[in-house]
Q: What sequence folds into this?
């Protein structure tokens, strides 16, 4: 299945649409959304990436996320990735823009891009089934 992503410029403005694999191969900037899940006691969720993943297969990661689909918002992309990767249904809360400094993988030059932080709450009636997480309150 082909995944389409928005190509963006250094100010996160859409300049076109491309197939995700082509964007990755060519180093074209495109949007991604990630979530860090943690508990109130400061413990973070760490998961193992699938063995068939194209990037970093089988390695541990604390980020849950992936490419934002063409025309999709960051919050909707993050919620979709949580559902796809962890089976957690989340409803995005209002997000607040912040600033993050990223470095281009091709040139190494810094660029400032908008980053979004959002809080996700569990959907009532659904809870993660991982060891020890059943009755503890978690925040993703």
A:
């Amino acid at each position: 299945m082909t995944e389409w992503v928005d190509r963006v410029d250094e100010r996160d403005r859409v300049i076109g649409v491309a197939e995700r694999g082509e964007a990755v191969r060519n180093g074209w900037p495109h949007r991604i959304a990630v979530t860090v899940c943690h508990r109130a006691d400061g413990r973070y969720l760490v998961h193992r990436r699938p063995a068939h993943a194209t990037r970093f297969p089988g390695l541990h990661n604390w980020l849950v996320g992936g490419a934002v689909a063409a025309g999709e918002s960051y919050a909707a992309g993050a919620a979709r990735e949580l559902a796809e990767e962890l089976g957690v249904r989340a409803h995005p809360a209002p997000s607040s823009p912040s600033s993050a400094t990223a470095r281009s993988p091709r040139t190494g030059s810094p660029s400032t891009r908008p980053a979004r932080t959002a809080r996700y709450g569990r959907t009532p009636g659904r809870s993660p089934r991982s060891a020890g997480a059943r009755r503890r309150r978690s925040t993703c």
